Amino acid sequence: MAHTKAIGSTQLGRDSQPKYLGVKLHDGQMAKPGNIIIRQRGTKFLPGKGVRLGHDYTIYAAVAGKIKFTTKKKKLFNGRKRLVKVVNVI
């Protein structure tokens, strides 16, 4: 006997579910505690004042306030500096 059906079965068609990454609340919008601001993989954005970083690198609001995006220079371990994006809730 055949191990697979002759018609109607395929070994293709497996795909992962979408992760819906990206910025959820933008600069100037109001955030309540617990609101997700950014879903990301890795630290593309860094947490600032009034926000926390989840175990899957999700940035969420810890306090109520207005969202503010800024940039700052961060010193790396090898002595170089790089420009990073920081999210704050003020």
Automatic annotation (TrEMBL):
GO molecular function: structural constituent of ribosome
Key words of the record: Ribonucleoprotein, Ribosomal protein
Family: Belongs to the bacterial ribosomal protein bL27 family.
One of the record's GO cellular component terms: cytosolic large ribosomal subunit
GO terms of biological process kind: translation
Gene3D superfamilies xrefs: 2.40.50.100
This protein's name: Large ribosomal subunit protein bL27
PROSITE patterns referenced in this protein's UniProt entry, alphabetically: RIBOSOMAL_L27
